[in-house]
TrEMBL record:
Database matches in Gene3D superfamilies: 1.20.1050.10, Glutaredoxin
Name of the protein: Glutathione S-transferase family protein
GO molecular function per UniProt: oxidoreductase activity
EC number: 1.8.5.-
Superkingdom of origin: Bacteria
Positions of the UniProt region annotated as Disordered: 1-20, 316-353
EC category: oxidoreductase
Organism lineage: Bacteria, Bacillati, Actinomycetota, Actinomycetes, Micromonosporales
Matches recorded under InterPro entries: Glutathione-S-Trfase_C-like, Glutathione-S-Trfase_C_sf, Glutathione_S-Trfase, Glutathione_S-Trfase_N, GST_Omega-like_C, GST_Omega/GSH, Thioredoxin-like_sf
CDD domains the UniProt entry points to: GST_C_Omega_like
Amino acid sequence: MAERTEGVEPESWKTGGKYVEPGGEFTRDQRYIATRITADGRDGYPVEPGRYRLVVSRACPWANRLIIVRRLLGLEDAISMGVAGPTHDERSWTFDLDPGGRDPVLGIERLREAYLARFPDYQRGITVPAMVDVPTGQVVTNDYARMSLDLSTEWTAYHRAGAPDLYPESLRAEIDKVNDGVFRDVNNGVYRCGFAGGQGAYDKAYRRLFDRLDKLSERLRDRRYLVGDTITEADVRLFTTLVRFDPVYHGHFKCNRSKLTEMPVLWAYARDLFQTPGFGDTIDFDHIKRHYYQVHRDINPTGVVPLGPDLGGWLDPHGREALGGRPFGDGTPPPPPPEAERVPVEHTAAARD
């Protein structure tokens, strides 16, 4: 996961994974490798097709953002993607999905090898998403929030024909404002509930989460998308939390005032995005559930992964077309994902529990 694999300090990796500090409030470590890949190469890493590899886990909501944006913009040929497994050992994310347990491009077994190649004494979290410089095998950045914006603004020369503008200049101030509230209370809010070490911290996080979800419901009641009349970065950021809400956050993180399926506006909005090319086709429900329930052993000591919920509802009609809006603006939907990057059908909403 992003940010110290969901806020875990490095020592916690060695002690079996400690995610909850008794009596305390969860505080996300937001210190990232701030190096940027830019068109002018001002940080020493210029935009260059084929040079960088995006390392993700489909379990992670922060990495899922990059997967979606890369798909929508058509950057698959310009930036290759390595997919780590849904769980990790005490050292870091591993490439156990690949033959021989090694990433076929980077040739490494664990993502930490790319971090240590650049920073031999690296003491922060080994996190996904991460962009790795293929020629040197060194991590470039794990600053996920900046990474997705840079895909939209710095990689324009390699966007597909018909790529949407996910961060239009005229709407950036509003997008940033919406994103700030969504991050504090929803994206990070579910973790503040799940990793709360005391009743007071949990109660505060719970109220903030559902207060924000109620406000978002009102915002989306008569508008199809969060900002403007097309899909933007704001929709991507909210979607990756909503799609995980019922499978993991409602039960595992005790975000249980309401399921997503019990919040009509947000449920319809999430289905609308899920059924939009580039969103639902990136979601691996099996990886999502296995990560949260098997890795967070101080929350779920048995590691038992629940069979539910039934995922078939994601494909039900949503009716949001009546609100107008144009998903891709003047652009077009992305083509189907490359064969090698398709989620196994048994891990998707098409496989009903």
